[in-house]
């Protein structure tokens, strides 16, 4: 099982026709809702197929098992987060670094709040996989790190590319962990931790005159 968990999420075949694409989206949407309602362990592929109103054979045409569905949902969220980063990154390119950090942290926190399935999916993914395996599945974090490193190099040309990549990696990994921790606590602690995260990252960047 461990070796299987290390493999990136792969569908059995990619839907090409519009009808097939709609069927896959329906399967993923239903699966996400059932994971929220009943939990991953209690949800079966048959239950997903039944609620999605597709034959179980059609589900298996695209997804070999429930884990593949979970990974596809996770990848969908990683992609959405990446596009959110790109959008804000472009808008805030010239902003003071404190404003940049504040808006970024708030945006990713709001993303998780607006998508209750995000936490259900990621929690289960963490239970199934170790962090290193999730990093293998998530192909978007390296893209975020690369673009953030380029941004840092533009803000301070005295920093070389290797140093900027190290700083960007530190930021992305620290923010990911702190935001995830915030979701496990009550609202008051969560708000306090988000504020501390902003202070931490802003101060860290200011030491490099970003």
TrEMBL record:
<dbReference type="Pfam" id="PF00440">
    <property type="entry name" value="TetR_N"/>
</dbReference>
<dbReference type="GO" id="GO:0000976">
    <property type="term" value="F:transcription cis-regulatory region binding"/>
</dbReference>
<dbReference type="InterPro" id="IPR001647">
    <property type="entry name" value="HTH_TetR"/>
</dbReference>
<feature type="DNA-binding region" description="H-T-H motif">
    <location>
        <begin position="44"/>
        <end position="63"/>
    </location>
</feature>
<keyword id="KW-0238">DNA-binding</keyword>
<protein>
    <submittedName>
        <fullName>TetR/AcrR family transcriptional regulator</fullName>
    </submittedName>
</protein>
<dbReference type="InterPro" id="IPR041669">
    <property type="entry name" value="TetR_C_15"/>
</dbReference>
<dbReference type="GO" id="GO:0003700">
    <property type="term" value="F:DNA-binding transcription factor activity"/>
</dbReference>
<dbReference type="Pfam" id="PF17918">
    <property type="entry name" value="TetR_C_15"/>
</dbReference>
<dbReference type="InterPro" id="IPR050109">
    <property type="entry name" value="HTH-type_TetR-like_transc_reg"/>
</dbReference>
<feature type="domain" description="HTH tetR-type">
    <location>
        <begin position="21"/>
        <end position="81"/>
    </location>
</feature>
<dbReference type="InterPro" id="IPR009057">
    <property type="entry name" value="Homeodomain-like_sf"/>
</dbReference>
